[in-house]
Amino acid sequence: MSRDTLRDTVTDAILAVAPEADLDALPPGRPWREQLEIDSFDFLNILVDLEKRLGVSVPESDYHELETLQGLLDYLERRLTG
């Protein structure tokens, strides 16, 4: 899966929970949950959606790697290719 396709998939999963989110204005190195006001329940819904779309489950011990959009994409890319 290309990085662009992965980003589109992540964007779709986030917009399914937060349709008003402006991801284009989101700096990739800044915490995305805070900026989009995503609470823990919505965060889990996004992860469930990504698991369905990509077949990648994220253990709670790895949540710290998903703090930024860049980190989320890097993590998923590693899991998909590794």
Describe the fold and architecture.
- By secondary structure, this protein is mainly alpha-helical.
- The protein has one domain: Orthogonal Bundle (Non-ribosomal Peptide Synthetase Peptidyl Carrier Protein, Chain A).
- It is 59% helix and 0% strand.
- The protein is built from four helices and no strands.
- It has helices spanning 3-17, 32-36, 40-54, 69-81.
- Helix 1 (3-17) packs across helix 3.
- The radius of gyration is 12 Å and the shape is globular.
- The mean pLDDT is 94.
- This is Carrier domain-containing protein.
- Residues 4-80 form the Carrier domain.
- Pfam families: PP-binding.
Give a brief outline of the structure:
The protein has helices at residues 3-17, 32-36, 40-54, 69-81.
Intertermini distance: 12 Å
Using only C-alpha atoms, the radius of gyration works out to 12 Å
Q: Outline the low-pLDDT stretches.
A: none
User: How many structural domains can be distinguished in the coordinates?
Assistant: 1
Pfam families: PP-binding (PF00550)
Domain Carrier: 4-80
Protein name: Carrier domain-containing protein
Organism: Halomonas aestuarii
